[in-house]
Amino acid sequence: MDSSEKQTTEDNFQGDPTGKQKASGETESSNVQPPPENNTTSQSAAPAASEQVQQQPGGSSDVVEEEEERMGMKKLSEDMYYNYDELYSRPVITADSEIPENLLHLTHSFGYDCGRRANLQLLDERTLAFVAGNQLIFLDVQTKEQRYLRSCSGGGIGTIMAHPSNRYFAVAEKGDQPNIVIYEYPSLRPYRILRGGTGQAYSFVDFNREGTLLASVGSAPDYMLTLWEWRHEQVMLRCKAFSQDVYRVTFSPDNPGQLTTSGSGHIKFWKMASTFTGLKLQGLLGRFGKTALTDIEGYVELPDGKVVSGSEWGNMLLWDGGLIKVEICRKGGRTCHAGTIQQFALDEGELMTIGTDGAIRGWDFESIDTADCNDDSGLFEIEPMNEMVIGRNVSLSSMVKSCLPDSFIWFAQDSNGGIWKLDLSFSNITQDPECLFSFHAGVIQGMDVSSTSHLMATTTLDRSVRIFDFLAKKELTTSRYKQGGTTLTWAPRLVNPSGGLVVVGFEDGVVRLLELYNPQSLRVVAGRSRYGDAELRLKQAFKPHNAAVTAIAYERNGEILATGSMDCTVFFFTVGDRYDPIGFVTVPGPVQGLEWSPQSHDENTLLVLCRSGHVVEVQSPDPEAQNHGTTYHISGLPTRNFTFSSIKSHIKREEEIARRQALKEKKQKEREAQLKKAKEEGLEPTEEELQEVEEEEELPPLYTPDPPSPLCCGFYSQPGAFWLSMGGYDSGFLYHCKFSEQQGEDLLQLRDEPFTFLPVQNTDEDPICTITFSSSRQLLLCGMQSGSVRAYPLQPSDFHLTSMQAFWALSVHDNQYGQLRQLRCSFDDQFVLTTGEDGNIFSFSLLPQEDLLKALQRSKAKVPSPRVGVEMEGVAQDIEDPSAYSIETAKQKLEMDRMRREAEMRKVERRKMLAELQNQFKQLLEKNQGLPEHVRLHRTELELDWRFREETERMTAQRVREARKELAWEEERHRIGLQKLQERFWDSLESDTVTVVAFQSDHRISTYRLLALSQRFHELKQRGRVGGPGAVGQERWRNKAEAGKDSSNITADQEDLGEEAVMAPHVVRPGGSKLAGRQAEKLRKATEKAERARAKIDKRRKEWAELYAAKPNENCEDPEDVRAIRLATENMGDFKLKTAKDFTVPEHLRMNAEKKRAQLVHLEEKIHERKTQMNSRIMALRDTKVSLVSRLRSQAQQLQAIQERLVPHFCSPVPTLPSLLPEETPERKLRYTRTTLQRYGALRAQRACTRDQELEGGQTLLEQLEAEIEEEETPCHTPADRREVEESGVTELEEEMREVEEIRLLYEEESLLEQMSSSMWQFDAELCLLRHEKLWLDIQMKLADLRHVTLFQELLLLKEFEKRENSLQERLNACVEEAEYLRSKLEECKQALELKRRDISKLQERERAIAATFQASLGENNKFADFLTRVFKKKIKRVKKKEKAGDDEEQEDSDEDSDEESDWDDDEDDSGSESGGPLDDSVCPPNCNSELFENTVQLRERRLDLEELLVEERKTADNLRKEGDSLVKKEKGVHGSLKAAEGDLELFNREKQQKLNELDVVVPLRLHQIEFVSNGVVPCSLAPALVLNTVALGGLQERIKELQVEKSEQRDLYRQARQQHVQLIHDRKDMEAKIQSLEARCEQLMLMKFGKLVDLEALQTLSGNRNLEEMRRESRVREAAYTQELRQWEVKVTEARHAVTEVTRHHTERLLSMNSLLSQKKEMEDKLNTRQSKMGTQFQGRRHAEEDERRRLYQLVQSQAQEANALRQEINILSRKGGHILPPSQATLPHLPDAPSRSTRTNPERLRHFKLGGGHPSTSSQGVE
After folding, report:
1. Whose CA is closest to 637, among 603, 614, 611?
2. 644 and 726 Cβ atoms separated by less than 8 Å
3. Cβ(1351)–Cβ(1160) under 8 Å?
4. Which of 351, 629, 779, 1039 has the most crowded CB, counting CB atoms within 10 A?
5. Torsion sign (Cα): 1528, 1530, 1536, 1537
6. 1503-1521 mean pLDDT
7. b/e 1772-1806 (16+ beta carbons within 10 angstroms → b)
């Protein structure tokens, strides 16, 4: 194998079962599960063989190399094809059986697995392909013909995919080690077979754009992703895709080498990467982050590598780099689709999405590709460009595009059972969606065939019932209902000879009888049209159950119909023209099936099969029996029960025992044969051979499933016996059962076992779900859970199924979820029809193809003819309400109603009796009341017993309480309901619409209907008062800046105050003055004079400071001028329109959401205020009308009274009295009393009694009640009868009086009529005026509404910008705050630095003052000046000042150290001096003034202190200067950030202004307001026009004239100012010359008077110092006292010297005497030595004593020498420093026994002498010596 072949092998096979390869990505193709080793397919592909070789670690290397070489060299021919006849799956037939292979032949498919993903492919322009179970169906769109391609594996088809060229298509199958078969189209020849891609099933496959590669992904358990080079049947790469279901895998059309997979809760992005070990698959799992986890059905790869996917809630997710970049939704947060997005399509720059909501929407690709989120919500809002909603009940799952170029036709798969043809051109000529095919959606719940024709009826939960002609292969009719169908049966011939009755059960418990007929046979009736080949008509509907109907069966004689349900009941009906209920029985579990006993049985019984394993046999009820009870429950009906008990574990145990027994017998025979053979050979068997040792294994345990296994189906075998097929654990057998003779009462405890069983081959995991027989009962058909059909040939009358041995099996429906639900044979046994849970319906022929063609000479099935007169019958009443009463519930309801009516009748009778008794009692009371008082009975005497009355009252009160308690909940509910209604519709209404109508015209005026301002409005108003966040923030910055300025001013003021406090002289109040009176008075006057001079100087200094402060800078400008210039710059010159690109929004015009919200609130408040004012005026007018109407009525009554007294011909017609219309007093509608409520209840009861009758004019209850109330309130005036005045018999006086009376009455009549007319006319005039004002206000309100709309649009727009603006504003705020902080810190630093500089200058002045004091103290011609100067300027090491400590030893040690350091410095200074001799500058030299020396030392200490302070202050100043420099740098950076932030905010404001400019604003204009004329004509478009306010325009024109006048005035002012400026310059020069001459004169006078230049201010403020004078006097007094004390001490010293001389003399005498004694002693010792030999050792002790005494004296001399040295050092210290320091502790002297008293006395005297004569060290040292 060469290198290229090896590289091919490495690229194609990256699987490493040993796990030696390392992953180079997040997920790589090295994690491969190898295919199983039991691949027995003859056409095994190279990859599978190679991988099997890799799995053999113990195999030979030659075999591996040979296999690799064979695989690498394999090249498949381009024209190589497989034989389809050898590949497709065939029926499974029992060996040695005579069952033909073509027993069943597929004729047609009536279903569509619409729930399968991507189950629609387009192979050419007219051929659609989809999967139906184990078939691939090719459907011709035009002719609707079908072609079929069977699965090769027999395990079903997983998915299909068409090649991009449409020359091939891939069929990925299911089963054990399924293959992918590539077929050529249209020849349908197998072209390539891809093996070993997954273990159980493929879920999706996809070709790349070029069609050279194929990607497949498997389902559970391996979820293997495989990339194929399909033309060579080789695996390129393979890797596990995910650990959960994977729905899709696709290649990226624009990025070769990139793939995407999606599925349950994930999306994964793959890339084919080249590594050093070959090609790898690297996977990156998408991370959802904050987005909720979702299943991803559809996605699309974008050209730049991004991916857009869908979500379960309908939004789109934009993925970039494995992360969600943004979630895309519609405006307002609406989802893109109302459900899952199933598919994406990128077509010609438009992104289309297909959703389960039946909508197809087109989106702008560029907007989605560049979508980004500007806030933290993560959402990007966009509206679709195009949209097409197919229908309300449409749920699209996938689409394929037409193959024609430039075509906009798409074919869509509808999950609700349809295939649509869509035109997605989105133009004016776009065609409407067309539903090409319609199928059932979901599981086929019920199916049955006609007993007279080749017709089939089906129903599902999609709420439809369909009729098919499986002979003509078409659907005849469809009928839809409100609920889904659950079961169906076709009425037998005994019930309906024409075969046109179908009984359907529904999920709500309703059973409908549907008549099928041919509408072409009907007579033409007006209003009905004839169309179609068949029609379903509802004959009857009834509801026997409260749950889904699961089974329907007709009795063998056709007299009874039985229905079973999930509610564990079986209902019986009599069969006839109308089905009447007989009754029902209850069963132990949900009904699975019903079967009546056949004609061969003696008894007519019903076998009820329950899903829980119970079987009940019910005797047929009597159809003639009438049920007069209160329920339909049949209680006395004989029943027998059977409860299945599992025996499968017993069967398995018996089989195991038999197997072991057979094996044991076989081994026994083998052993006997071996022994026999050994005997024949003459060999003796050994003991081991003779002994049989066999270990018995434990038998399988007995097992009973819990819960019990479900019952699948069953049928009668003989009377009392039946066969059952069980599911779950008990599958694999047919159990023959019978009812026991002893039936227990407790059905739950009943357990019955089958008496025999029949094993069914290969059904342990695949139970029989449905069983049917052919009409001759010679063929048993079984529907399996795996979707296959089995056929068992049977012998005639074989009820025990002994001949059920050989079978024929074929996989028909989907093997995973296509369980067979129904299996039927046609009436002539020529066809077999199957339905499954996969939604497919298949029709098979039972005859060979040639016989079938002869039998199918008829083109279609016969549809029954309609009944006679059916066209004249009315439509039967249907039950559409799912909550309607069932038959049993309705009967119980009727019975309850009857009992209630009887009880009411009894109550009425008793009430009647009570009423009669009450009437009698009232009559007795009246009679008693009419009797005389002495005979009349008292009320208490009429009582039989007072306890009756109390008991009655107590019971009444108790009943009232109980009634109130019972009605409390209702009362509270109605109260809360009324309260809610009032709050919703009345309390929120501030003013309802009130219409006021004029009296004499049709003019009317209405109030505004005003809603009360909401709480939200008041909150916004309060927030507007407080101020928005921006305003608050700006105010905060302003306050901070002002606070900073104030603080700086305060600091400066404090500094000035501090400086004044420092500079002001410290005045000590005279407390206890020590000066004499004259000196004190003189000093006081000098001080007062100095204070006055100082105050005058300070005042003058302040005036000068104020004058210089007021002096403007040379470059200073007048603030008024600056303000005017800024105002002119902003408001004059080149104005920029808001629409200009470079328009800068001024600060005061910048708008945000808070300000806009405040404007809205203000506008709403103004609108509400204006409307409220108008409403109040209208209501006042209404009140005026009310009072006026009342006054008019009273005047009418007066007029009527007057006219009654007048002659009729004198009476003027009375004007029509006005009345208030209902709309004028709408508040009366809500006024009610108890009487009103009682009347309303009476009217409601009356309306309920006369519900069918129409009321007058169709009035409602409220209208009728209002009419009655108005009639009651309207006063009824009946004119009094006018008495005719008889003219006869009247005197002249009476006649005259009558005339006077008539004149007066006529006047009053005329006055009343005039008043009435004038009042009405005045009211109408006021109404007209107010109406005119309201019309004007209406215009303003309409304009305000338009303004409100504009403001609201602007607010919505500003809300979109609010988050960005807040972020930018916060950034600007942070920069401003930081700049303010740095500025304040810099100001503080500058102030501190200035203070330090002032302190340094003050210290330097003090240092110069000390130097000057030193020079002044030296005087002139001082011979020690150089020495003292060196002492003054000497630098010595100083110890830092420490806190005062209480330890004296530490103080002494520090003093000694400082002395040593000073000595060391002095030595250095002495060694460096020019004089030859060492001069100690720490000791005052002889002839030098000691006070001057001490003063010099003190000044030096003060100078050194000042130098240290200067060093520290300079260090502090340097640190402050460095800190200031760093702050300046930071401030520059912050200023840069601030400018950038301001720039960003300015750009943002421009963008916001541009968006605001795009809003349309309605401006109503009249023609005279339009002055935009072009060539004398108003143009058609006013787009370039500018809308201005007339007042503003006039103001601008007037401003032009004003500016011209101002310009000339400013010119004159400038000329005058220039002349004044020249004059001021000349005056200044003159003043400067004068000042110079005065200064020269002053200096000359100062030299003449003082001889030098002096500070006149200091001279003026010079005054006497009281302290100095007092100290001088005190020093003189102390000097005299010290001189006197010194004389006394000199006398004492002289006396002490004499004493010392005397003591020395005595001591000398004693020494001489001691010397003589010692000489004598020596002589004595010599004498003793001579006598030593004689005396022995008696004198040795004395010699030791002398030696001790000698040592003691020697030590005494040494200690005295040390003491002398110490005294010398102390004398030196005292002479150098002049201080009083205690001497060091003296050494302890040895004890002198000879002279203890003298030694003791000498030391204190010496010490005392040292203390007194400290200034004479020589004398002290002599004394000590």
Report:
1. 603
2. yes
3. yes
4. 351
5. negative
6. 89
7. bbbbbbbeeeeeeeeeeeeeeeeeeeeeeebeeeb
